[in-house]
Design goal:
The protein has about 170 residues and is mainly β. It has two domains: about 80 residues, Elongation Factor Tu (Ef-tu), domain 3; about 60 residues, Roll (SH3 type barrels). Helices cover about 5% and strands about 45% of the residues. It contains one helix and 13 strands; from the N terminus they run E-E-E-E-E-H-E-E-E-E-E-E-E-E. A hairpin with a 4-residue loop joins strand 12 and strand 13. The longest helix has 5 residues.
Length: about 170
């Protein structure tokens, strides 16, 4: 049996608060995901699956009922946890998904080392990698077209940036 690895998931939102009297949870989603049978919560930095009994149709902040969670007291322990989603199932998203990449070196095919990932900013349209290059802040769109490879062992992101992007 294959174990679940945190790096195979993206952070898709957070459990915002309790809802109702039967242990329902209101989620705040930051990704466009479809909740079906299972949801993964991040507990002690690991993805833990829970079976969804029901889900409301509200797109950005759905209300879910988890199987065997029947009281507000039982559900309260989940408030504030991250909601995880298997990255393979997210269409149109970049290989960069969250703050796991802070500190990784950025190396471009042409320019060589650009800097280190200082932050990953999430905008509605895309993610941006924030770094400092030649004493100025640089924001690089985290799109698959610009990312050749991510080497987690060496903590390096290999890029192929279009000419002129760094000069902007």
């Amino acid at each position: 049996m294959k174990s679940l690895n945190r790096k195979d998931f993206i952070t898709a939102g957070v459990i915002e608060r309790l809802h109702g009297t039967k242990g329902e949870l209101r989620l705040q989603l930051s990704q466009n995901i479809r909740l079906k049978e299972w949801v993964f919560f991040e507990i002690q930095e690991k993805p833990v699956p829970f079976f969804i009994q029901s889900v409301s149709e509200n797109k950005d902040s759905p209300i879910i009922k988890i199987e065997d969670i029947d009281t507000p007291n039982h559900a309260a322990r989940f408030v504030g946890l991250n909601i995880l989603f298997p990255s393979k199932q997210v269409k149109g998203r970049s290989k960069i998904s969250n703050l796991d990449f802070i500190g990784y070196k950025l190396i471009d095919e042409t320019l060589g080392e650009i800097g280190k990932v200082e932050d990953v900013e999430e905008l509605p349209q895309q993610l941006l990698i924030k770094t400092t290059h030649n004493n100025r802040e640089l924001l690089i769109p985290a799109v698959d077209e610009f990312i050749n490879e991510i080497n987690d062992k060496k903590k390096i992101i290999y890029l192929n940036l279009p000419e002129g992007l760094i000069a902007l």
